[in-house]
Amino acid sequence: MSDLLGIGASGLRAYSAALATIGDNIANAQSPGYARRTLQLRGAQSAGDTPFVRANINPGGVDINGISRSVDAWLIDDARISSGGAERASTRLAWMDRVEGALSDETNGIASGLTSLFTTADQLTADPANRTLRSQFLQAADDVASGFRTAAGQLSDMADGIAGAAAGAADQFNADLKALESINVGLRKARPGSTGEATLLDERDRLIDQLSAQGGVSASFDDRGAATLRATASGDVLVGGGEVHPISVTTGADGCLSFSIEGGAPFDTATGSLGGLVEASNHVADQRAALDAMAADFAGQLNAAHQAGIDANGNPGAALFSGATAATLTAAALSPDQVAAADASGSNGNMLALGAMRGANDPEAKWSGMIASQAQATASARAQDAAATTRADAASAARSAVSEIDLDREAGDLLRFQQAYSAAARTIQVARETMQTLLNAV
User: How far is residue 275's CA from residue 85's CA, in Å, rounded to a whole number?
Assistant: First the structure.
């Protein structure tokens, strides 16, 4: 009878734990990073059995063999890699869209200003003495200079924004590194197969997922599940051996970003949101340099053309612009009479020459080319983002198919273990009633 009582008691313990595990699964069905748990049960060793030899039929009850998590290491790695690619593409695209907006005519008016400048020059060829048209010509020049300054300011603010975002991302990355090391400490102390260990493993995976989405990292695990995290590109340790090596960000004079690991080793990442920020900073730096070059070229062309003419007072034309960069480009404060419409050949000769600048290599065409190039780069970034997002979604779905909670399945297991629990309770009741019957018969 004592064996029967032991069998029933072991069933109550085991099936109660199984019901608690199912309850955890149901309660965390929507929790990010939670992997489905299963209580592992095995037949208990009965009297007379040894770990090496067991009787064919000698029931001894049921033992709890720990909690297992439904995970697939390969699918997890694939999901992390694709997530890093998607975050890089998404971050890059977000800043590329902003650059496109900063260079658009709706924002700076450079394209419309250039068109107005050359259109007014054409009108002056027909009426070179018209002071209203002369004023419009000067206003168009001022509008173009203002547009360059506006675009330069927007790109400068964007570079500062990217640097600020990178600093914040580095802080979050370092906070996650420290949290991962705390989880490692907990895993080394946790009882194997316990609910506490499973919870720590879920949090470990969630943190590594987040770190993988931020930058290029790779993880390996010891026999207790504690993680060693390394930079994928260099192999330098970020978390391991009880130590955390944080990263830092440096912003160059041109706004380009670079990351390094504590101790000076570079943290080169071609994936994750940090990689996207690096690419965005490089693109903005390139566009700022191109804008400065275009502003200087534009000012040089227009100044040379205007200075080749003669103003209404018979004086040589003055420079229309000053400043060597887009941020410093300024239209000269000229009066309508100082517009050099004439040249030695006639009262409208210089405006005719200025209008003839329009062509394949004129400022309008160069600016249009720059806008088209940016639009093409943004479209390419958008296509890459769509592809990376699709791949990440597919990898995440494959991973979730293994780890996610199926409430129908949990409901079935819940009924099964409830019945098993009731059966174990009934076993104890039968043992008690049988013992009582024997005692009463004495």
Answer: 9
Residue 191 identity (one-letter amino acid) = R
* Radius of gyration of the chain measured on its C-alpha atoms: 37
Could you give the number of structural domains in the chain?
A: 2
Q: How many CA atoms lie within 13 A of 285 on its CB side?
A: 15
The verdict on 46 and 178 lying in the same domain is: no
Domain carrying residue 7: 2-70+405-441
Tokens of 215: 């930058």
Residues 187, 291, single domain; the answer is yes
Q: Which two tokens stand for residue 117?
A: 């400048």
pTM, two decimals, is 0.85
Contact of 64 with 21, CB cutoff 8 Å: no
DSSP secondary structure, 300-316, as one string = HHHHHHHHTSB-TTSPB
Same domain, 41 and 162: no
What does pLDDT average to in each consecutive run of 10 residues of the chain (442 residues)?
Answer: 73 87 88 86 66 56 84 92 96 95 91 92 92 94 95 95 96 97 95 91 94 95 94 93 94 94 90 96 96 94 93 93 94 94 91 83 88 94 96 93 88 90 86 81 70
Question: With b meaning 16 or more CB within 10 Å and e meaning fewer, what string describes 395-428?
Answer: bbebbeeebebeeeebeebbeebeebbeebeebb
